[in-house]
Amino acid sequence: MQTSEHIEKKQGFYAVYIKRTLDFILSTIALVLLSPLLAGLILGGSIAMRGNPFFIQKRPGKNEKIFKLIKFRTMSNRKDQNGNLLPDEMRLTAYGKFLRKTSLDELPELLNIIAGDCSIVGPRPLVPEYIPYYTKAEHHRHDVRPGLTGLAQVNGRSFLSWEEIFAYDLEYIGNISFAADTKIFFETIKKVIGRKNVADVSLARKDKDGRLHYVVNGKEIILHQPLNIERRISCNAEGNR
Q: What pTM does this model have?
């Protein structure tokens, strides 16, 4: 993997010297302006979730350094008779659906941006369990800070395959600029307002292999599974040929 020093030499002036400063200033302003909304969501989440409204999870950031991502909780902790958590689509609450459709569950990540763990625009932070399943090229998505939104999120989001998501991530990393970030930012706002490319998993149909089938504009598509599951299945299929 390329070192941070090498990456910074390859990137332009904006990516190395301007982007982080803008992230800090803009996210701080946003946090102040949105504080009444955040207070309302904290209160609403505490009531709807009957407890802690926040969801905190470890995620790999720049250079795969682990940090704690903070979001609003969208799922309950409902368990089966054996004490195991129920599938995501069964634990997603009505309040959680609202947060996801409006992307309001992502707002606490402003704190991650201020702390320097994330950027406003960049590849979305995924879970650490996926790291062993990346290709050599895909590891480069961690050459930069992960983002609140990214190129993949404005080009399909929930309806992209993992390969398409990673291709968009790498395309972004190779072309970081103020113009690109500005375009992605405003495209994100437009899609959030229009509530586009967000799959409601509670409406999906699960087949015998555990894959979720979702209908979009009259066309049925298969939503991607967790990366570690998809690539294990793919490896097993290759090995059985």
A: 0.84
CB-side exposure of 1: number of CA atoms within 13 Å? 16
Residue with tokens 């950027």: 119
How far CA 49 is from CA of 42, 55, 174, 197, 198, in Å, comes to 10, 11, 41, 25, 22
Pairing of strands 66-72, 119-121: unpaired
Give the HSE-up count for residue 41: Cα atoms under 13 Å, Cβ half-sphere. Answer: 21
Q: Is the pLDDT of residue 207 over 70?
A: no
Q: Is 154 exposed, middle or buried (0-12, 13-18, 19+ CB in 10 A)?
A: buried
Alpha carbon 67 to chain centroid distance? 14
Q: What is the pLDDT of residue 82?
A: 82
Q: Is the pLDDT of residue 96 over 80?
A: yes
Mean pLDDT within 198-206: 61
Q: Give the pLDDT of residue 194.
A: 80
Least confidently predicted of 97-101, 145-149, 208-212? 208-212
CA dist 29 → 43, 113, 141 (Å): 22, 12, 27
Higher pLDDT, 146 or 199: 146
Question: How does 109-131 read in b/e, with b if 16+ C-beta sit within 10 Å?
Answer: bbebbbeebbbbbbbbbbeeebe
Nearest partner of 141 among 155, 124, 127, judged by Cα: 124
With CA atoms as reference, report the closest residue to 21 among 132, 145, 123: 145
Cβ(7)–Cβ(140) below 8 Å? no
